[in-house]
């Protein structure tokens, strides 16, 4: 699959939704945040045009995982500076849902790194 495995993940932390979040929120994030980051990364497609142009960057995406495991309010909270890379992350989140079901809505912020190594892939 051309462009698969789009980027390495940077450091980051999930955070609770705030008002209305359930008591199971911290344990959900502890148990599932690393898996959610990994599954997004594994299903990320580095756009071919972006590779050719040498575009790299970090995209920070935030979304809410509903009790049914599906994501809503998916938004870019920090752009890579390249809309094509930003949209690739949004598509990856949409493609990999449903996520593990939280006991209450959970908001996550996930950084994704697009990095080319020797012009042939991402790391």
Q: Within the CATH hierarchy, at the fold level, what is the topology?
A: TolA/TonB C-terminal domain
The biggest beta sheet is recorded as: 3 strands, antiparallel
| Extended strand count | 3
CA-atom Rg in angstroms: 14 Å
CATH-derived architecture = 2-Layer Sandwich
Question: Given the C-alpha coordinates, what overall shape results?
Answer: elongated
Q: TL;DR?
A:
The chain has 123 residues and is an alpha+beta fold.
List the helices and strands and how they pair.
Elements: H1 25-42, H2 48-53, E1 57-65, E2 71-78, H3 83-96, E3 106-114
Antiparallel strand pairs: 1-2, 1-3
What does this structure look like?
Helices cover 31% and strands 21% of the residues. The chain has one domain: 2-Layer Sandwich (TolA/TonB C-terminal domain). A hairpin with a 5-residue loop joins strand 1 (57-65) and strand 2 (71-78). It has 123 residues and is an alpha+beta fold. It has three helices and three strands. The chain starts with 24 loop residues before the first helix and ends in a 9-residue tail after the last strand. The protein has a three-stranded antiparallel β-sheet. The longest helix is centred in the first third of the chain and has 18 residues, at 25-42. It has helices at residues 25-42, 48-53, 83-96, and strands at residues 57-65, 71-78, 106-114.
């Amino acid at each position: 699959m051309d462009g698969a495995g789009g980027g390495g993940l940077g450091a980051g932390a999930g955070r609770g939704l705030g008002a209305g979040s359930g008591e199971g929120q911290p344990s959900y994030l502890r148990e599932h945040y690393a898996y959610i980051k990994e599954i997004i990364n594994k299903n990320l497609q580095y756009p071919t045009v972006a590779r050719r142009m040498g575009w790299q960057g970090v995209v920070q995406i935030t979304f809410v995982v509903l009790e049914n495991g599906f994501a809503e309010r998916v938004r870019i909270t920090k752009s890579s500076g390249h809309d094509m890379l930003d949209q690739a992350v949004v598509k990856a989140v949409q493609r990999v849902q449903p996520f593990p079901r939280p006991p209450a809505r959970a908001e996550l912020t996930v950084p994704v790194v697009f990095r080319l190594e020797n012009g042939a892939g991402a790391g």
